[in-house]
Each structure stands twice: as C-alpha cells, then as structure tokens.
Amino acid sequence: MQFEDVAYKINIKQVGGFLKKNDAESQEKLILKGITGIVLPSEMLVMLGPSGSGKTTLLTALGGRLGGHLAGNITYNNKPFSNAMKSNTGFVAQDDVLHPHLTVTETLVYTALLRLPKTLTKEQKSQHAEAVITQLGLSRCKDSIIGGGLLKGISGGERKRVSIAQEMMINPSLLFLDEPTSGLDSTTSQRIVFTLWELANGGRTIVMTIHQPSSRLYYMFHKVLLLSEGNPLYFGKGSNALDYFSSVGFVPSVAMNPADFLLDLANGISFDDSCEDEIAIKQTLVCSYKENLSESVKSEVGSDHNQVHDSIDHDKKLKRWSSTWCQQFDVLFRRGLKERRHESFSVLKIAQVLLVAILCGLLWWQSDTSRHLQDQLGFLFFYCGFWVTYPVFLGIFTFSQDRAMLRKERASGMYHLSSYFMAMTLGDLPMDLVLPTVFFIITYWMVGLNPTPGSFFSGLFVLLYSVLCSKGLGLAIGAVIVDIESASAFGTVLTLTFFLPSGFYVQNVPVFIRWIKYISINQYSYKLLLLSQYKPGETYTCGNNKTCLVEHFDIVKTVGLDGLATYVVAMTIMLVGYRLIAYFALMR
Ligand SMILES: Nc1ncnc2c1ncn2[C@@H]1O[C@H](COP(=O)(O)OP(=O)(O)OP(=O)(O)O)[C@@H](O)[C@H]1O
C-alpha cells in the first residue's frame, strides 16, 4: 500500500456570540497536511503521535472508510480502493463493537458465516472460526458471553482479541488497527502486538496506531510514522528514528524508551538546553522532515509504483459479497433472535404489560354496552393510545443499539442493508405481536367486550396491525433522527398529537384542519376497533339513556366513519411507508 501527499480538511461550524449577526460561520480545518509513505507485505507500520495529531483520521483514510475532502493518492497493489477490496481488508476500530449477549464462539461463527466465501460449507466455516479462536488464544473464554455495560463478560483484552479475530476471519492481506492496546496492561498489550507481528511475518500488511508503546513493543515495528498536528515528522524504520533525530539536532539526554522520545518531540519537548518554545521545536521538525526525508520517502514510493506485490491473497478474485442474500438473511435472522431473546421477553417488559392489562380489566370489569357504553368507548380509546405509543418507543430505540454494529459490518461489506432490515423486522415480530395479543386476550374477557368470535378476531387483527404500523413509525423516527434524546422527544410530541383528532377532545373540528385525522394512527385503529365491536346500523344506549347508531356516537360524529377499506388501505400505506423511510435513512 502506498499513500502520497494525503491531505484532509473538514468544515467546522464556529458558533458565534449571542448577539452576532452571522451566528454560524464555516471554517476549514486541515487535519492531515500531506502525508506520504509505503508499507509492504510482511511489514508492520505503526503511527505514533500525540492525541489529536491525526492518527485515526489517516488510518481511516487508508482503510477506505473516510468520506469528505480527501486529497492525495492512496493505492493498494497500484489500484485504488474499491468496494470489492472491503472483503479483503480488515479494520479494527478503537471501540469494540460486539453483541454483548453472544458468546465468543457464537460471535466468531456468525462472522465466519457472513464473511467467508459461499464456496465453503457451514461446517468448514465453523472449523475456520475455531482455528482463529485458537490462533488468537481465546480458547479459554470461547463459551463466555462478550458482555458490556453492566453485563459481566470477558475481559477488555479478550474483547479486543475477539475484534481482531473477526477481522482475521477473512484472512485479510491488509489489516488496520486503531489503538489495539488502549486500556490494556503491558503484558496483554505485548501479547496482542506479538500476535500481530506473527501475522505480519505470515505475509500480511499491518497498519496500526498506538498511543504509548513500551520499548519492547517499539522494536517489533518494522516502520514508524510520527505525526504532529497533521504533519509528518518521521517516516522510516523504527530502528533508524533516533539516528535521524540526532542528525537534525535532537538527542535524548538520558537512555529512554524511543517511543517516549518521539512523542515528546511531536509535542514540542526537547531535552537540550535550547530555550526554544514548543511551537518553534515542532516547526523545526516539520522543516527538517521536508528538507531531509520528504524526497527520499517520495522516491521510495515512486520506485514501488510498478511493482505488484505477491500478497498472500493476490490470486484470490475479489468479490463484492461473500454470501448470497438468502444466506445473509438466514444468519442475521438467527443471530438477531439469539441476541435479542433477552431483551425481547425480559421480565420487566412482560410484567409491565401484564400489570397494565390486569389493571384495565379491573377498572373496566364486565362493562356492558347497555349500561356502560361510554366506559367501553373510553377503554377502546385507551387501548389505541397504549398500543400506539408503546411500539413507537420500542421502534425508536431499535437502531440506537444496532447502529454502531450496522456501520461497522456494512463498512466491511458483510451484508446487504436489505437483508439486515428484513431479518431485523421479521426477528422482532414475535415480541411485536405476542405481548399485545396476551394483553388483548386478558382485557377482552375481563372488560366483557363483544363475545362473538368475529368481533374478537377482527379486534385482535386491528390491534396487531396498528402495533406494526406504530413500530414502523418508531423505526422511521429512530433512523432519521440519530440523537436518541431528540428522537424520543419527537416521538412523544407526535404520539400525543395523534390523540387530538380521535374525537375525544374536540368535536367541532373546523373543516380546514380535518385533514389532520389522516396522519393519526390512533384514529384509524380507534375507528376500526369501534367497527369490530359495534355494528353500524344497530342501536346502542349512549349518554342520558338515548339510543343511537354507531355513526351517531359523539366521538365518531366529529370525524365521521369513512368505511373499513379506507382505514385498512391507509394503515397499510403507513405500515410499509414508515419502514421504507427507515430503510432509506439507514442508507445514509
Ligand atoms: N469531524 C470532525 N470535526 C471536528 N474536528 C475533527 C473531526 N474529525 C477529526 N477532527 C480533529 O482532527 C484532529 C485529529 O483527530 P484524530 O482522531 O485523527 O486524532 P488522533 O491522533 O487519532 O487522536 P487520539 O490519539 O486522541 O485518538 C483532532 O484535533 C480532532 O479534533
């Protein structure tokens, strides 16, 4: 891999003072200022530099995962990065994004099933996962769950090794790692770097960032790139770095870890007696690089342009997807069920739904249409409110948990977005449908609603349909609004607004605002529930012992009954439409 004059800038918005006219001014910030280098198979390149020097940005750019204003030339075996290359490149991000409820083996077997070529059988893929578990020393914890947050699982070092193992699964010729040792003790760090060193010796190219390697680690790196505020200060063999800096006048005063010395220099700290300030020292080092190293690095890159290296996978024809859509769907569906089984039927969720069902049953105990019609109308109103609001919030939170995983796996080209979306939608169905069904059965008999099978099943159908519709709305909100707090606030406002046109609050709705009823899932499901319980054309006793038709219930009169077909069509459009919005929002 070669990279020449890589520069990257971003536009940052500067928020101005309280009374300024132009509150938001856009300003350009240069993050990478022309970085050049080359790394060959069997080499391990490490990027060193203080926090904020641009290591992660450069690594992301080299790994083909950085959008925006990227200038310069990055080639892999003389070819630019392509989508097909994703399946031959491993990228281990700084944060480990893993499913907390899966075991180490499950995690890696699912990765193998998704990432290994379709020419291998399931058994061969599982065996490959087992081999990687052994290779990365994870055998001891292979049956333990990953854990995370309050859920106790494997240790931080083991988690990092699982992340590396996921990328190792595809036997990548090029492996990028962002801070693979951060937060780990020195022995574990050493073990991880040693594993990477072995991988490099096996013919792979390893590129990584690291914060503060010990001297033992430092001497394992074949090449070092030192960065300071986006500028290169050194590129070359790690063992030559001290000689280079002493040749430009910077010598460590005491014997010290070379990595510490380089980091001090990148921070503008030198150990000689000169009284230069930090900015001046950094400036001197940047100029020294340009004068002494820049040309030789560029010529090294140039001389390599026409050579195509025989990486271990050179003969492998790169394919965009390693498995078919159906295989991806199958694996994602089974993985989703396993990962979500804990949250789907959690004791808290079941208990709260049962509690509300029993409370409703007691409050509306055996209300009949001859004496308590108004009460029943109120109950149906509550029904819709509860089973519209609850699924909306379940939907909003779905992507807050999955988004990081989706981003990571999609960046590696593991599956189609459509196979994920379908697997997630179908995998969630049991929870989406079972709890409202249980709620409906309990309350239906306790409240004493219309006992005919037709009324029961049509009522249940309406309830489940509106639950699916509301879940779709929640998914759309959660996918469009990334910030979970803003998404929840928006969901609250929207579901409360849905209550307005349901006929309970205002009966004399002006004509020009009557359209609002068409956006409210509540009013659709409410009308359909009414139709499932009371037959149009039949008389019922409502307020002040008057008898009236369903069409004349106060609550219905205000917005009118449009007929069954209208409601079913409208809800179907919402059910599909909201999911399409969510799907396209996730594509961004
Ligand atoms: N989207 C962004 N908006 C604003 N600043 C950004 C953005 N991306 C990167 N930066 C800035 O670019 C600089 C380099 O960031 P980068 O994450 O590459 O540094 P780093 O060397 O990896 O730091 P660390 O070691 O702390 O991870 C930082 O000053 C950071 O604040």
Which small compounds were modeled alongside the protein? adenosine-5'-triphosphate
Query: How many distinct helices?
Result: 18
Report the mean per-residue pLDDT as an integer.
Answer: 84
Distance between the termini: 28 Å
Strand order of the largest sheet: 5-6-7-3-8-9
What global shape is seen?
Answer: elongated
Rg calc: 31 Å
Largest sheet: 6 strands, mixed
Q: Structural class given helices, strands, pairing?
A: alpha/beta
Poorly predicted runs are 15-21, 311-316
Task: Kindly state the number of beta strands.
Answer: 11
The number of domains: 2
Helix-strand sequence = EEEHEEHHHEHEHEEHHHHHHHHHHEEHH
The portion of residues forming beta strands comes to: 5-15%
Approximate helicity band: 40-55%
Main location: membrane
Transmembrane segments: 344-365, 377-399, 420-447, 459-482, 489-506, 564-586
Keywords: ATP-binding, Membrane, Nucleotide-binding, Transmembrane, Transmembrane helix, Transport
InterPro entries: AAA+_ATPase, ABC2_TM, ABC_transporter-like_ATP-bd, ABC_transporter-like_CS, ABCG_dom, ABCG_transporters, P-loop_NTPase
Give the helices and strands, then pairings.
Blueprint: E1 2-15, E2 24-38, E3 44-48, H1 55-62, E4 69-75, E5 89-92, H2 104-115, H3 122-135, H4 156-168, E6 174-178, H5 186-201, E7 205-209, H6 215-218, E8 223-228, E9 231-237, H7 241-247, H8 258-266, H9 278-303, H10 325-344, H11 347-363, H12 369-411, H13 417-447, H14 453-480, H15 484-499, H16 521-533, E10 539-542, E11 546-549, H17 554-557, H18 564-587
Parallel strand pairs: 3-7, 3-8, 5-6, 6-7
Antiparallel strand pairs: 1-2, 1-4, 8-9, 10-11
Helix pairs in contact: 2-3, 10-13, 11-13, 12-13, 12-14, 12-15, 12-16, 13-14, 14-15, 14-16, 14-18, 16-18
The chain binds adenosine-5'-triphosphate (ATP).
Residues 10, 12, 31, 49, 51-57, 211 line the site of adenosine-5'-triphosphate.
